[in-house]
Amino acid sequence: MDIYIEGKKIGADHPPFIIAEMSGNHNQSLDQALKIVEAAAKAGAHALKLQTYTAETMTLDIREGEFYIKDRDSLWKGHSLYELYQKAHTPWGWHEPIFDYCRKVGIIPFSTPFDETAVDFLENLDVPLYKIASFENTDLPLIRKVASTGKPMIISTGMATLSELDETVRTAREAGAKDIILLKCTSTYPAPPENTNIKTIPHMKELFQCQVGLSDHTLGIGTAVASVALGATVIEKHFTLSREDGGVDSAFSLEPKEMKSLVEESLRAWQSLGQVQYGPTKKESSSIQYRRSLYIAKDLREGDILTKENLRIIRPGYGLEPKFYNVLLGKQVKMDVKKGTPVSWDLI
């Protein structure tokens, strides 16, 4: 079933809905944030997503133990969680000018709330839909709060077990959510393609009877384009003006030319799906003439025998089909025949 967002239709019968995720790539500059909005719109993205939180709503200001990132493979090693969220958050006072500018340049604005106060704030801005992040997909009080707005919900499924995901979807539906889109997601940054498992997309669609898309943290656009063939109706990718700018998510974010390619190539992938089809399409009809068929390869007189020297399988395709070649060998022609004549049964 189609989902409508500010006049935009999302569903299997429509091109993939492409979301540019700004996250913290604005580097604490509103001017940079507005430039990202403009670049996303020019690249053809359909929506731009923010994240609505403060360091205080995310964690505690503790710089040791489990509140400190020690993982040597993490992009954020050496920061406390509080420091990371201070650096990455989008100031709440920026949301309205960013949303206004999105609508001015023709792109749909929305956000991921990380607690109930963020939902109340976004409701005051008349946000058209909500996104639940993977790390919050087991926060059932937040799920209930968002679902109670009655607005469409996009839920990333990173790390969630099947039972957790079932509980999340049931909770959302019981709390009033009618339009739910699940996003297959691998919560590593960047995510290796071999750990992305996009074959889960059609399985998830069948299990939960809803639209399914992809929140993609792999490098490049290959995984995202491939997901379209598996039924993804929504694709979310992090977006930056330049990875050299060094935003918190820049290492796995698309630049404008790459986002444009994603929009174009995902559309081509969707257009190519079509339906189960055998036989020539309308566009192929004119090509049938260039198939191989049977032709007379030498001038023949009435009564001559068809042989391998004077009967050929060649292009174009106006003669009898090649499958009759062995049937015709050894047969006599009943009239004079010129070289280059397509073979038909009335010659025999």
Automatic annotation (TrEMBL):
Pfam families given in the database record: NeuB, SAF
GO BP, one annotated term: carbohydrate biosynthetic process
GO molecular function terms attached to this record: N-acylneuraminate-9-phosphate synthase activity
Start and end residues of each AFP-like domain: 293-348
Entry-linked Gene3D superfamilies: Aldolase class I, Antifreeze-like/N-acetylneuraminic acid synthase C-terminal domain
Domain of life per record: Bacteria
SMART domains (alphabetical): SAF
Annotated coiled-coil segments of the chain: none
InterPro entries: AFP_Neu5c_C_sf, Aldolase_TIM, PseI-like, PseI/NeuA/B-like_N, Pseudaminic_synth_PseI, SAF, SAF_AFP_Neu5Ac, SAF_PseI/NeuA/NeuB
Protein name: Pseudaminic acid synthase
Organism the protein comes from: Bacillus oleivorans
